[in-house]
Amino acid sequence: xxxxxxxxxxxxxxxxxxxxxxxxxxxxxxxxxxxxxxxxxxxxxxxxxxxxxxxxxxxxxxxxxxxxxxxxxxxxxxxxxxxxxxxxxxxxxxxxxxxxxxxxxxxxxxxxxxxxxxxxxxxxxxxxxxxxxxxxxxxxxxxxxxxxxxxxxxxxxxxxxxxxxxxxxxxxxxxxxxxxxxxxxxxxxxxxxxxxxxxxxxxxxxxxxxxxxxxxxxxxxxxxxxxxxxxxxxxxxxxxxxxxxxxxxxxxxxxxxxxxxxxxxxxxxxxxxxxxxxxxxxxxxxxxxxxxxxxxxxxxxxxxxxxxxxxxxxxxxxxxxxxxxxxxxxxxxxxxxxxxxxxxxxxxxxxxxxxxxxxxxxxxxxxxxxxxxxxxxxxxxxxxxxxxxxxxxxxxxxxxxxxxxxxxxxxxxxxxxxxxxxxxxxxxxxxxxxxxxxxxxxxxxxxxxxxxxxxxxxxxxxxxxxxxxxxxxxxxxxxxxxxxxxxxxxxxxxxxxxxxxxxxxxxxxxxxxxxxxxxxxxxxxxxxxxxxxxxxxxxxxxxxxxxxxxxxxxxxxxxxxxxxxxxxxxxxxxxxxxxxxxxxxxxxxxxxxxxxxxxxxxxxxxxxxxxxxxxxxxxxxxxxxxxxxxxxxxxxxxxxxxxxxxxxxxxxxxxxxxxxxxx
Length: 663
Hints:
Blueprint: H1 2-35, H2 38-49, E1 50-55, E2 62-63, E3 69-81, H3 88-106, H4 110-123, E4 128-134, H5 136-143, H6 151-155, E5 157-166, H7 174-177, E6 179-182, E7 188-191, H8 192-196, H9 198-201, E8 206-212, E9 218-220, E10 226-227, E11 234-237, H10 241-258, E12 262-269, E13 275-283, E14 289-290, H11 295-298, H12 308-317, E15 326-328, E16 333-336, E17 339-342, E18 351-353, H13 354-360, H14 363-374, H15 378-387, H16 418-423, H17 432-443, E19 448-449, E20 454-459, E21 462-466, E22 471-473, H18 479-495, E23 509-516, E24 526-534, E25 541-548, H19 558-561, H20 563-576, H21 587-605, H22 619-628, E26 632-637, E27 641-644, E28 657-662
Parallel strand pairs: 2-11, 26-28
Antiparallel strand pairs: 1-8, 2-3, 3-4, 3-5, 6-7, 8-9, 8-10, 11-20, 12-13, 12-25, 13-14, 15-18, 16-17, 19-22, 20-21, 23-24, 24-25, 27-28
């Protein structure tokens, strides 16, 4: 028995000793953490409860050349509530009034909001959701409600800003306007003008300190822990909204009429290279059309007969042909090795001049007039095309430009039929904008200019950068060649393949194109195109229309599908759209408007202290008045003011931004 008691006692001593040693180790560890690693763990604790978050900069506006908005950032406000911050007295005094105010503004019953507020108070919710995506005027109203008007610390209101990008033109030019998006890894996806000039538009981000609260939410800390963001610059594009509207609707009508797969239109100012309109429309499975891809910039394809201009210029420059030279089109079918060049006219055109072959778009004539002089030295022909820059990308700022593709003698894909087929636009690939740039150079007397999408970058009224005309090639051909092909293109419209769009009242010049596409899949798939310029005598604009896979049973030739789109654009710009619209108003209405304007004029000059009511006024007058009283004005749409973001009668704060809705 004594031995057992002794064993038990020894075990107790052993256990006590172990516990003592363990206690010493714990004490040592605590002291080591406090004195040697305390700073490290305090930093870890702070990091876990506080973080610096990014405040996005307000993105600059993208404008059309006439000042119309193409893209703008609208500030939206999210509201949350810290139920712990208000004192009991303040909460009990104002909860009923706050609930009623929220009901009036947001729509649900006062009881609904009062129950939510009281429940949040009871559960000590420090981040109760109240409202999302409020406009500026709604934000001002909610901030002035009982309790919320005491601010973040006494009233518990938490305001978070974010911006949304809006496109006033909606789907028109959507792909050209584009977007810029940054993913979680910091990588940007850039499309269209928004992507190309994002480095101007995006500005510089700010920083704000936030603290972690219950349920993993983060709450802003104070107002002193902020690095303010720098807003982005405004970018002024070359797009003309009126011409864009004309081009978009003309293209859409043709696509719908011929049930085509997709198409594009580009209108360029001849002397400067400024893109005045660019529309890209593709068909959905439901048969509707929208801006799916930027076909004009990115889709390289066989141009077909519009390439005959390039072949003609090369041959004339090399002096291997003359415009009066006669070529026998035989019976409209000429065989080269195992392939046959075929004219669209059954039986051919007989013996015709080189100039007439261009006007009538004879494949057999072009195949013979290029193959015969260049067959022994095809490099001479291809090198001439390359010397004119046709094999080079334009170097556009917009991402995704298609790559020109030309076969070259000696390549594995060069065959005996490659040269004659190149003559009428097969075996080579160009984008519509690359083709148009060449046509524009002809209209511009040989000077090839780079297509340009923007004019200026501005910060408010201060110009940050101006973009001038950029010359790619000062002279692509001699003046005699330029004059010769100009006459051919004018005659193509006057009496050639595009005579169906000829008008004695308005001169146009250009070339039709009809090219088989995906012929290895099935026959009957075509690309219909027309490229040219107007007016023919003094070119102001060049234009290309390309329509893919129209319904063959309805029509597929370039003169039927694409040329009328060109005609409609040209004539609407110069004929149907007057330079000045004269509107005759009744005397009574004129007097009313005059009196209204005089009243506002007096109000502006009396140094008003509150926001004036501009609803119902014309946009131009409203903008002038508001800017005169010191406000920064943004607007969407056109016409008269239907809504204003800051309500009439509110206190006027200089340099405050007000947004107008115009209808």
